Amino acid sequence: MQFMVAVASRGLVVAKPYGDNEKYDLIVDAGRRLWRVQVKSSAARHHRGYAVRASWRTSDHQISYKPSQVDFMAVTIVGEGIWYVIPVRALAGRLTINLYPFGSRRGSRNGFEKYRGAWELLSGAKAMGRKGRRRVRSRVGREIR
Q1: Residue 1 CB burial class (10 angstroms; 0-12, 13-18, ≥19)
Q2: Radius of gyration from C-alpha coordinates of the chain
Q3: Of 54, 50, 74, whose CA–CA distance to 63 is shortest?
Q4: Phi then psi for 70, rounded to 5 degrees?
Q5: Residues 6+ apart with CB under 8 A from 100
Q6: Which among 52, 104, 114 is positioned nearest to 78, based on CA atoms?
Q7: Greatest distance between any 2 Cα atoms in the chain
Q8: Cα 98 to Cα 76: distance, rounded to the nearest angstrom
Q9: C-alpha triplet 87, 51, 105: angle, nearest 5°
Q10: Does residue 20 contact residue 56 with C-beta atoms inside 8 Å?
């Protein structure tokens, strides 16, 4: 529900599909595009970060989300008010990811920090460019990287 409120407050339309037959939880209507979004939350601390399961389960194993099934995974860090909007392509088949909103003590790369608060990816504009770089159009129509 928190995701639905956050999306609606940004002027986007959000809908919940009937039933639980799909790999995504919600649909975000961005005007020109419908995005399939899987919503996750994490309170599981892991080396100053948070572990997030980026997969779905069958009775005997986990399966990663595929871009043909889901467009984005939205993750909230419980109790912190922090959201990540991560394109499923950026997950690259991982079953679990770690998010470090307060920095990693080991100095590892925080590869998903660029998706922290990345609500603009749901705006309906061309959200992702080549090689996973975010692209956003300025008000005058020029592309910003």
Answers
A1: exposed
A2: 15
A3: 54
A4: -140, 140
A5: 48, 49, 50, 108, 110, 113
A6: 52
A7: 52
A8: 12
A9: 105
A10: no
Check whether 138 has a pLDDT greater than 80. no
Q: pLDDT per residue over 38-90, tens digit each?
A: 999 998 887 778 889 989 888 888 899 999 999 999 999 998 889 999 999 99
Give CA separation, 121 vs 10, 44, 51, 95, 118, in Å: 12, 26, 23, 22, 6
Q: What pLDDT score was predicted for residue 75?
A: 95
Joined tokens for residue 83: 């959201």
At residue 142, does pLDDT exceed 60? no
